[in-house]
Amino acid sequence: MNAPAYSKEFVAAALRRSAKIENGQREMEFTAINGRMFLLREEDDGRYFACEMIPFGRLYYERPDGNHLYVDWSGHEAAKSDPNGYVAAAEAAGVPREAIISGGAGYGVYTRYLSSIDEAAQEFVRCILDNERYDDIDRAKMADPEYNEKLRQSEEQVSRDYRAHEQAAHEHSTETEFGLFKGLHGMMGPLSEGAKQRLLSFFNSPSHDTWDDCARIMVKGGKTMWQLWGDVDPSAPRSLENDVWPNIPDADMMRSALRAFGDAAPDFEGRSRRF
User: Fold this and answer.
1) What is the pTM of this model?
2) Residue 131 to residues 71, 85, 184: CA-CA distances in angstroms?
3) What is the pLDDT along the chain (275 residues), one digit of tens a residue?
């Protein structure tokens, strides 16, 4: 599709006119006549984070009864290689523009930042003229050995700190907790009294309700009761349909699993069936 002709000055002015404060930051957007939308956010340090809202092939409709219908668009694969023509192709297929679901980018270690609104406007104009999606990744940073070495060292330090925290939490719990709860702890410290009571309610009176009330409690190292069930019982459900449990675990089995888990030293290599 032919690219609409925009100048950097026109886009920059449109961005400034659209400015609003969201969560304490100035946010701006520019939507081209062909439906392409670009977002711009001013960071606290004066730099700018930019991204393009890119369709990923899902459509959204509201039913007469107020419920929502989500469907895949069969033309997505053919249309996605033509950013300037994507919306037109969808509309030609009978898809309303407002039904197209798009997603932007988040922050990461290789996030690309721009120096000004004018630079962002120039990038958006270039993307439209070249019929390319905006690239929010800093490719130079990604290829910089020095930066990646610092990143590796930082990640290793975070890992060491996490392991030390988990080991200390385990040792504290083994010294201060008793019985069923010895060796167990939450992400931020000892299990709360409320969490303990919910666990005891299940063990003392197993039911779908008492299990549902404790299934997502983190009992050690970020692991939930549901995950612990999956570790000891291959038949444990991996997901729920309509948030309904098809069955619940045996309380005696879970009591034994929880005690063994509390006694065990933190396992930094093991992985649960779900996260």
Assistant:
1) 0.68
2) 27, 9, 55
3) 567 789 999 999 999 999 999 999 999 999 999 999 999 999 999 999 999 999 999 999 998 888 889 999 999 999 999 999 999 999 999 999 999 999 999 999 999 999 999 999 999 999 999 999 999 999 999 999 999 999 999 999 999 998 999 999 999 999 999 999 999 999 888 999 999 999 999 999 999 999 999 999 999 988 999 999 999 999 999 999 888 999 999 999 999 999 999 999 887 765 444 43
Domain that holds residue 232: 177-263
Structure-token pair, residue 70: 């989500």
Rounded (5°) CA angle 197-201-204:
130
51 and 136 in one domain?
A: yes
**Judgement on whether residues 118 and 185 belong to the same structural domain of the protein:** no
Burial of 106 from C-beta contacts in 10 A (0-12 / 13-18 / 19+)? exposed
- Reduced to 3 states, what is the DSSP secondary structure of residue 199? helix
